[in-house]
TrEMBL record:
The organism's place on the tree of life at top rank: Bacteria
Assigned keywords, A-Z: ATP-binding, Kinase, Lipid biosynthesis, Lipid metabolism, Magnesium, Metal-binding, Nucleotide-binding, Phospholipid biosynthesis, Phospholipid metabolism, Transferase
GO biological process, one term: phospholipid biosynthetic process
Coiled-coil region: none
GO molecular function: ATP binding; ATP-dependent diacylglycerol kinase activity; metal ion binding
Record-linked SUPFAM superfamilies: NAD kinase/diacylglycerol kinase-like
Nucleotide-binding found in the keyword field: yes
All residue ranges annotated as the DAGKc domain in the record: 1-131
A Pfam family assignment: DAGK_cat
Species for this entry: Ureibacillus chungkukjangi
Protein name, entry field: Diacylglycerol kinase (ATP)
Transferase in keyword set: yes
Length: 308
């Protein structure tokens, strides 16, 4: 019998996962999986639990939680040579990665995808040599807003909590001086933000990096150069409609390795990894091509040009 390990965050998604656990276990049992569970207890716990699951030889790991939990599970699995397949049950606020691979928010439908058994290999981002991301790495003052939204507020208001925080932060957004090397090119100067994406879903919006492929071995890299608040708002609203790509304030490129350094001693650049704080520059992002096999609804994503 194959063995599945569920790693779930009991604080994400209003306890819904725990309540549905009996049905989840039964579905997996019928599909031939002997399943055990781990409820995460604190930040970082999902990473340790995923590493243990790999060492104990589980065939699949199921991450149930938001993008933060998924990030930790991917980080726990990624250093190993032989990695289990990964199933995802999206329980968070935005669920960018699940959105990009069309895994639905309903728990039973997400489990059905795992039971069906179709997988595709997806790219994973490696930062320096010890941190990972599966969706997006970003930097610049505005990208720090995710740390300032209290978890309880997210549970109650969902994505609205992020919009409210974003609007509150707009007057205080300022540019940061940075050097960004992306493959053979270099940007050096002041920028409002940079994004280094693996999927097309950014903060729940699917047109910001419209052509990001999940397994081409390349990041979709965006740098928004210094601009005034009016331009910032104008470009942000163009981005929501996917009409920002040729804006002169924006650099939009594909790259397999991206290096970000702060060029002013006292200016720190905090790096946001899949929505959580992930250390400071200098950082090197390396694309680990097709690193993890993820369960997907193959018939729903086969025709997307974002999948190779
Ligand atoms: N038992 C726990 N108590 C408090 N925090 C936890 C616990 N288990 C995990 N965490 C932390 O909560 C963070 C956020 O969790 P997660 O991403 O699953 O949910 P979310 O915040 O509801 O979703 P989203 O990130 O999509 O808004 C994780 O990165 C993890 O470090």
């Amino acid at each position: 019998m194959r063995r599945a390990r569920i790693i779930y965050n009991p604080t994400s998604g209003r306890e819904l996962f725990r309540k549905n656990l009996p049905e989840v276990l039964e579905k997996l049992e019928i599909a031939g999986y002997e399943t055990s569970c781990h409820a995460t207890t604190c930040e970082g716990d999902a990473r340790v639990a995923a590493a243990h699951a790999v060492e104990r030889g589980f065939d699949i790991i199921i991450a149930a939680g938001g993008d933060g939990t998924l990030n930790e599970v991917v980080a726990g699995m990624s250093p190993y040579e032989k990695r289990p397949k990964l199933g995802i049950v999206p329980m968070g606020t935005t669920n960018d990665f699940a959105r990009a691979i069309r895994v639905p928010r309903k728990i039973d439908e997400a489990i059905d995808i795992i039971v069906k058994g179709d997988t595709i290999p997806v790219d994973v981002g490696l930062i320096n040599d010890d941190r990972y991301f599966i969706n997006i790495a970003a930097g610049g003052r505005i990208t720090e807003l995710t740390y300032e939204v209290p978890s309880k507020m997210k549970t109650i208001l969902g994505q609205l909590a992020y919009y409210l925080k974003g609007i509150e932060m707009i007057p205080s957004i300022k540019a940061t001086t940075m050097r960004i090397e992306y493959d053979d090119e270099v940007f050096e100067g002041e920028a409002m933000m940079f994004l280094c994406g693996l999927t097309n879903s950014v903060g729940g919006f699917e047109k910001i990096a419209p052509d990001a492929s999940i397994n081409d071995g390349l990041f979709t890299m965006m740098i928004l150069k210094k601009c005034n608040i009016a331009d910032f708002i104008r470009i942000a609203s163009l981005a929501l409609r996917g009409e920002h790509l040729n804006d002169p304030n924006l650099i939009y490129k594909k790259a397999s390795v991206v290096k970000v350094t702060s060029t002013i001693d006292e200016e720190e650049i905090h790096i946001n990894l899949d929505g959580e704080y992930g250390g400071d520059a200098p950082v090197t992002f390396t694309n680990l091509k097709r690193h993890i096999d993820v369960f997907v609804p193959l018939e729903d994503i086969r025709d997307l040009d974002r999948v190779e």
